[in-house]
Amino acid sequence: MASFEHNKSTLLLPILFITVVLLIVSLSLSTATARDNITPTQPLADNETLVSAGGTFALGFFTPNNSSDRRRYIGIWYNNIPVQTIVWVANRANPVIGSTGQLSVTANGTVRITNRETSTLVWSVVNHFIFLTNPVVQLLGNGNFVMKEEGDNIENNYGWQSFDYPTDTLLPGMKLGVNRMTGLNRNLTAWKSEVDPSPGEYCAAMVIGDSPEIYLFNRSSKLWRSGPWDGRQLGTLRSWNSNGRAFTYTFVNNYNEVSFSIQVSYQTILRVGQSGVLQIRAWVPEAEGWLLLWQIPANLCDNIGQCGSNSICDITQSPICRCLHGFTPKNPANWEGGDYNDGCVRRVAFDCRSEGADTFLSLNGVKLPESSMIYLDSFSLDACRSECLKNCSCAAYAISVGGGGCVIWVTDLLDVVQLSYAGLDLYMRNGLTDAASHSQPQKANWRIVVVIVSLLSGALLLSCFIFFLWRRKKRRRVILGRTILFSHKLDEDDRRKDLDLPLFTFGTIAAATESFSAENKLGQDGFGHVYKGTLGRDKEIAVKRLAKSSQQGAEEFKNEVMLIAKLQNRNLVRLLGCCIHGEERMLVYEYMPNKSLDAFLFEKEKAALLEWRTRYQIIVGITRGLLYLHHDSRYRIIHRDLKASNILLDKEMNPKISDFGMARLFGGDETDYNTRKVVGTYGYMSPEYAMEGIFSVKSDVYSFGVLLLEIISGKKNRGLYAFSPHLNLVAHAWSLWNENESLELVDEAMSNDFPSNDVLKCIKIGLLCVQDHPEDRPLMSSVIEMLGADITSLRQPKQPGFLVKMGPELDHISNNKDPHMSNELTVTLDGR
Ligand SMILES: *[C@@H]1O[C@H](CO)[C@@H](O)[C@H](O)[C@H]1NC(C)=O
Ligand SMILES: *[C@@H]1O[C@H](CO)[C@@H](O)[C@H](O)[C@H]1NC(C)=O
Ligand SMILES: *[C@@H]1O[C@H](CO)[C@@H](O)[C@H](O)[C@H]1NC(C)=O
Ligand SMILES: *[C@@H]1O[C@H](CO)[C@@H](O)[C@H](O)[C@H]1NC(C)=O
Ligand SMILES: *[C@@H]1O[C@H](CO)[C@@H](O)[C@H](O)[C@H]1NC(C)=O
Ligand SMILES: *[C@@H]1O[C@H](CO)[C@@H](O)[C@H](O)[C@H]1NC(C)=O
Ligand SMILES: *[C@@H]1O[C@H](CO)[C@@H](O)[C@H](O)[C@H]1NC(C)=O
């Protein structure tokens, strides 16, 4: 026993020793790390910073844009992010001039910024809520700067907190909205400029009412509204959650508060930019940049009242504005000219005499109209309908998910937007002649007029038709299969042109492709399967059997096909005809014996066949084809899915662009959340298109740039670079360019016998085309000129827009190192 006691005490000694050593080490460590608070006896000088526990955030004096300016502000930024990212500013409008500022807290809990040299008070806040004997102001791990009693760790027991006074940035944990108890209104106001944090013009705020919504303001004018809570999301604001990357938000609307807050799985901020945009960005360490995940306004329909009153904005249609059912343009001339400001007016009055005679038409999945609605508490939809019928000015009703009742509109309907995801249903009241079941005798006269008019116009149409048939007879030319006449709106030009477009029967196509046999299958893509076929003895064709996701009716489809068939250029694949059979839609093209460019480019052996001359010929051909689509054809077509597999090669290796106009054929579906993957391919998508589906000719130019770099390098933009320091081919090309090593990009499969100046010029053009800002990218007409010009006459390319893979919905986001994220997207939407 005794010896055991002895052993125990000898064991204790070293343990004690180690403990003491550890204690000393940890003490010295803690004095080495920066403190996270200030007390009345320990103010913060200009040359010091506080660092939050965990090291995520830092607080101290800073100069905007990290310049050598003398204006000093107290701010909070990310401590571990090398790009200056200020998320909060205390003295936004009152800088300390020079480095003599001091942040302190008084014994009664007033936080002050003073200029020690001039003894002036620059900024202060007072303790509103709690009694403090030993006040301490601490930077918490979530970036909240709070005033509290020393040693008191009760959450939210603060005398003041920075989270209640956001500047332009919403951090996770912050709330945007109104505290109904205290009246505190927490909104985000942009910086005035990159170098001036004082409150600027743009502000994102929660506007409370019966259906609270987030609005983006330009001073007092409204730029954008989210739309009301629909039970799952706040209007058009989407959450996402995939592969451990998440952006979700919480919307609270109760007796105490209306608030919006974000939850994220990585460093993410929501910010109002100085250019009037609301952005969500995430820090991606691999890219050393704040990647733009989402931005508002993203397209024209995001602008409040884009289409004027009583109209609906649908970004997938062209034109995007359309009068609501029962309305007609107030000023038809302007409306036709694309000026929608005047909006629409009611075409027919409601039948208010006999209650219940009016019917309703539902508009599904829309952003509900803005203008003053009347909220009916705990009314069911049916009750709402009857209520609407009672008031002759009531034009529509809808469920109010946020409020638990319904809403009716007795005014003009403003800012109705068609959404391809989420949204609510709006029930529009039908006017007199729109209602199906009307049989009042007073209307008999009307009916006669209608009958006569329709008879007359029928006769007129018939004679036009006959005349037209007669004209056609003389110039009919059967190209292939059966030719039929379309009932298409014809303008003079169309009349003069040949309108033949063969409509093949299903039987013909099935026979040509041996019933779509597997041996005849050439490939498939997002739009459907492609088969090789033989018509008659030896006419080879390629048949694209479209996936069923096209929602277009037969007539609409035919019109679109006809339009596309009119695009003829030696660098476009020729559309020979189409086939419509029940739900089936097929396109018949000329057959290209050398298949597609990707089959050559990305296969080592075949790539060797592509000498520089051939590659250059392909580049020029694609440029011509795209130029034709963008500018030369009568219809402005944006391809939207330009990539190596869409470039087909004929016998002489001449490139022909295929799949143009597919976005049109897929009609209203094109920006749909689910089928959006169909249009566009990751790796080729421009940042602005990938983000929110903003497309323009400049998004095609971006894809063209990627294609150009691929043709030169023989490498795919994505895939090969997963384990290299570069994100993708574009990033790789950019870094080689900056190191003056661009020729390293050239495909090894190519012999060394090439004019390096021409290759360098093409690389430069490629880089000009993939620049981050769409407005920096050249038009195809300039690209043609550049190909013929001297390399020294070309501008220097700016940083490209990179695309990083981050999960299904975020497969494509851009990188921007701009510290204040003033990255502006001014893309004009161009439907045709
Ligand atoms: C900050 O500057 C003061 C003089 O203005 C100096 O006494 C102090 O040591 C400096 N502190 C640090 C951490 O550099
Ligand atoms: C901000 O800093 C960057 C680089 O330091 C500079 O290029 C830019 O012009 C500055 N912005 C302003 C508005 O001064
Ligand atoms: C500002 O620039 C200096 C070097 O000029 C650098 O050490 C510092 O980290 C930068 N600050 C921020 C917040 O980016
Ligand atoms: C706190 O003390 C400061 C001076 O130290 C004084 O100006 C201020 O009025 C006091 N505030 C309150 C709420 O007592
Ligand atoms: C934003 O908040 C400030 C301070 O609460 C308030 O004065 C301002 O009116 C708010 N702006 C909007 C647009 O709600
Ligand atoms: C904001 O309003 C000003 C005029 O008050 C205007 O010049 C500016 O273009 C507007 N900004 C946006 C983004 O609409
Ligand atoms: C319809 O509702 C509006 C708004 O509440 C009201 O001003 C108007 O008097 C109502 N009209 C009828 C006929 O009830």
Automatic annotation (TrEMBL):
<dbReference type="InterPro" id="IPR011009">
    <property type="entry name" value="Kinase-like_dom_sf"/>
</dbReference>
<keyword id="KW-0067">ATP-binding</keyword>
<comment type="similarity">
    <text>Belongs to the protein kinase superfamily. Ser/Thr protein kinase family.</text>
</comment>
<dbReference type="Pfam" id="PF07714">
    <property type="entry name" value="PK_Tyr_Ser-Thr"/>
</dbReference>
<dbReference type="InterPro" id="IPR000858">
    <property type="entry name" value="S_locus_glycoprot_dom"/>
</dbReference>
<keyword id="KW-1015">Disulfide bond</keyword>
<protein>
    <recommendedName>
        <fullName>Receptor-like serine/threonine-protein kinase</fullName>
        <ecNumber>2.7.11.1</ecNumber>
    </recommendedName>
</protein>
<feature type="transmembrane region" description="Helical">
    <location>
        <begin position="446"/>
        <end position="470"/>
    </location>
</feature>
<keyword id="KW-0675">Receptor</keyword>
<dbReference type="Pfam" id="PF01453">
    <property type="entry name" value="B_lectin"/>
</dbReference>
<dbReference type="GO" id="GO:0048544">
    <property type="term" value="P:recognition of pollen"/>
</dbReference>
<dbReference type="GO" id="GO:0051707">
    <property type="term" value="P:response to other organism"/>
</dbReference>
<dbReference type="GO" id="GO:0005524">
    <property type="term" value="F:ATP binding"/>
</dbReference>
<keyword id="KW-0723">Serine/threonine-protein kinase</keyword>
<dbReference type="InterPro" id="IPR000719">
    <property type="entry name" value="Prot_kinase_dom"/>
</dbReference>
<dbReference type="InterPro" id="IPR008271">
    <property type="entry name" value="Ser/Thr_kinase_AS"/>
</dbReference>
<keyword id="KW-0547">Nucleotide-binding</keyword>
<keyword id="KW-0472">Membrane</keyword>
<keyword id="KW-0418">Kinase</keyword>
<keyword id="KW-0812">Transmembrane</keyword>
<keyword id="KW-0325">Glycoprotein</keyword>
<keyword id="KW-0245">EGF-like domain</keyword>
<feature type="signal peptide">
    <location>
        <begin position="1"/>
        <end position="34"/>
    </location>
</feature>
<feature type="domain" description="Protein kinase">
    <location>
        <begin position="516"/>
        <end position="802"/>
    </location>
</feature>
<dbReference type="InterPro" id="IPR001245">
    <property type="entry name" value="Ser-Thr/Tyr_kinase_cat_dom"/>
</dbReference>
<dbReference type="Pfam" id="PF00954">
    <property type="entry name" value="S_locus_glycop"/>
</dbReference>
<keyword id="KW-1133">Transmembrane helix</keyword>
<dbReference type="InterPro" id="IPR036426">
    <property type="entry name" value="Bulb-type_lectin_dom_sf"/>
</dbReference>
<dbReference type="InterPro" id="IPR003609">
    <property type="entry name" value="Pan_app"/>
</dbReference>
<dbReference type="GO" id="GO:0004674">
    <property type="term" value="F:protein serine/threonine kinase activity"/>
</dbReference>
<dbReference type="Pfam" id="PF08276">
    <property type="entry name" value="PAN_2"/>
</dbReference>
<feature type="domain" description="Apple">
    <location>
        <begin position="352"/>
        <end position="431"/>
    </location>
</feature>
<dbReference type="InterPro" id="IPR001480">
    <property type="entry name" value="Bulb-type_lectin_dom"/>
</dbReference>
<dbReference type="GO" id="GO:0005886">
    <property type="term" value="C:plasma membrane"/>
</dbReference>
<keyword id="KW-0808">Transferase</keyword>
<dbReference type="InterPro" id="IPR024171">
    <property type="entry name" value="SRK-like_kinase"/>
</dbReference>
<feature type="domain" description="Bulb-type lectin">
    <location>
        <begin position="35"/>
        <end position="160"/>
    </location>
</feature>
<keyword id="KW-0732">Signal</keyword>
<keyword id="KW-1003">Cell membrane</keyword>
